[in-house]
Each structure stands twice: as C-alpha cells, then as structure tokens.
Design goal:
Length: 328
C-alpha cells in the first residue's frame, strides 16, 4: 500500500523534508552553542568576580596576554593616574541608556602602565556627542582594585578629539606614544583615596542564561515535525489509494461481474435507459461502500427501488423522479 513512496515525486518530497529538518537541526545546534558560551561566561563570573584580589606579580601575564579563564578576576594595584591622557569611549550603553565610559592610563610603582576603565557617563545635554562632565580621578598615589577585561576589537569608525571608538589597547598605545599593557585592561571596582566625583560604577554582569536553550529545543521540534507531517500526508495518500482499490473491486467501470458491473447491463439490456440505470446503481454502490461514509435515507430508498426493478424486470425509475415521488 506504501509502494508509492518509491516514486520520484515522493522521493523528492522526502528529500525536501530532510533538507528543512536539517536546517532546523543546524539552527538548534547554533542556539545550543550560544547557550554553552553564555553558561561558560556565567561560570567565570561566579568563580572570579568575588574571588580574593590578585597581586601584580601574579596578574602580570594576564595583563600582557588576556586569559579568558581569568576574566573578571580582581587585581590589586598601586600607582597614579595619568589624567592628561584620559579618554572618553563612545557608544557605551548601560541599562538601555546611551552613554560613554572613561578610560585613564594608570602608572604602577614599577613604571608599567595599565589602562583603567573608571565607569559610565550619560550622554550630555549641553553639547551633542559629549558628556556634560568628565570627573577627574584623584591625584597622587592610589591603591586600586579592578577586574580583568579583554582588549576590544578595532571599530572602523572615527571619534572626536579626546574620544575613542573602542577600548582597543594596541590602538590606544599608538595614540599615547608610550608602552602599556595591551592584553587586558581593568574595570575599576574600588580606589583609595576615592575621587571627589566618579563616573557611575559598573554593575555586576548578568548571570541569566537567556532563552537560547528553549530556542534550541523549538528548532529541534520543528525538525521532527517535518517528518511527522510527511508521515501524515503519506498515510492519507495510502488511505485514498486503499479506498480507490476497494471501489474498483466493489463496482468499478471495468469490473467483469458483480453488482453494478457489466453483467447487470447484460441482464437489463443494452438500451440507453438500462445502461443509465446500471451506471446510477454503480455510483450509489461506490458511495455506500466508501469507508467512513454513511448512506443517506435517499440512498437507501434508491437502492431498494433498484433491487425491485432489477428482479421484477420492470423499467427503472430515474433517481431524480423517485426522489420527488411519494414512495411508501
């Protein structure tokens, strides 16, 4: 009954189903990879964010070359700010609000220089493209606690004087004209003594996984549903084929004998009225024997009159006229 699945048409349907299912599975795997990245970042945050501070001697390799596993690790440094080389970083939203961040070179007691991101500033109201006020850090020797972050990619866009498009440390180093640590920078957490006014401090990064897992499961489900739909359509086609085969056996036009077949035509004669009556009976028999259909009262009445006319040899009444007559 399912041999039709081996035809070119149905093999094409199957190939198309497999293609769309593969696309859905690929999208599901992509969403799962994104979730794995988010989970790994959450694990780093939970492990490193509130860890004990690390001294410069241990953190120096991470400042020279960023170590992803050490991201958000607190590092304790002592030195002074080089406020004359302070820069404002453009297009840094926070809590859905546009704004800026402030980065300042920090010269350690060893003479090495690390970049400190001191916090966030809202967009200005007095002058477009600039914050209204850029707070200055405290002068003199500062003891600072900052969390490790990676150097950012270069953005192919310019910035006004005193601003940079991203915290790309090699590009910042070229602009400054003296060597700095180019692997990582620090987001300021605390400083002593504190400045009179500081930018808004950074909030703890989110540890919410998001909806990647549910999206992945939805894509996998869509992939399965393509095959479920293919199976349903194939089953419907097999049912139709089975019903057609049953109708051909019960009373098809090419049947050699049986109710409604050519033998009935021979018994009733070859007149046009007789052949029309036989055709009407075959149509009624097809309707009566179609699986899942229920004959109406008119169908039963027609079948009874057909049987009476056939056995008595009387002329056959046309179905349209019988339905308009009062038969008791």
């Amino acid at each position: 009954m399912y041999r039709f699945l081996l035809t070119k048409r149905w093999l094409g349907y199957l190939a198309l189903t497999a293609f769309f299912a593969t696309v859905c599975v690929s999208l599901g795997m992509w969403q799962m990879e994104r979730r794995n990245e988010v989970v790994a970042n959450i694990t780093r945050i939970n492990s490193n964010y509130s860890a004990d501070p690390v001294e410069l001697s241990q953190a120096r390799p991470w400042l020279e070359s960023f170590d992803r596993n050490r991201e958000w690790t607190p590092i304790k440094l002592t030195g002074e700010y080089l406020t004359e080389d302070q820069r404002v970083v453009r297009n840094r939203p926070s809590n859905g609000q546009p704004g800026y961040e402030v980065v300042v070179p920090f010269r350690l007691t060893t003479g090495e220089i690390v970049i400190i991101d001191r916090g966030w500033l809202p967009i200005g109201e007095r002058e477009s493209g600039r914050p209204d006020v850029v707070p200055q850090p405290a002068s003199g020797q500062i003891t600072l606690l900052g969390r490790l972050r990676s150097s950012e990619p270069v953005l192919q866009r310019g910035a006004p004087e005193g601003q940079i498009a991203s915290i790309n440390l090699p590009a910042y180093e070229q602009e400054l004209g003296y060597p700095i640590f180019t692997g990582s920078y620090l987001q300021m957490a605390e400083e002593q003594p504190a400045a009179t006014q500081n930018p808004e401090p950074f909030a703890k990064p989110s540890v919410n996984e998001g909806a990647n897992l549910s999206y992945s499961m939805q894509w996998y489900a869509f992939g399965v549903l393509f095959f479920v739909g293919f199976g349903y359509i194939a089953r419907q086609q097999a049912r139709i084929n089975r019903e057609d085969a049953e109708l051909d056996i019960l009373g098809g036009p090419d049947s050699a004998a049986g109710p409604g077949g050519p033998d009935d035509d021979a018994d009733l004669g070859h007149s046009p009225a007789a052949r029309a009556a036989a055709a009407a009976r075959r149509t009624a028999q097809r309707r009566h024997h179609r699986p899942g259909s229920k004959p109406t009262s008119e169908d039963e009445e027609d079948a009874l009159l057909d049987a009476q006319g056939y056995t008595s040899g009387t002329s056959v009444v046309q179905p349209e006229r019988r339905r308009n007559s009062n038969v008791t």
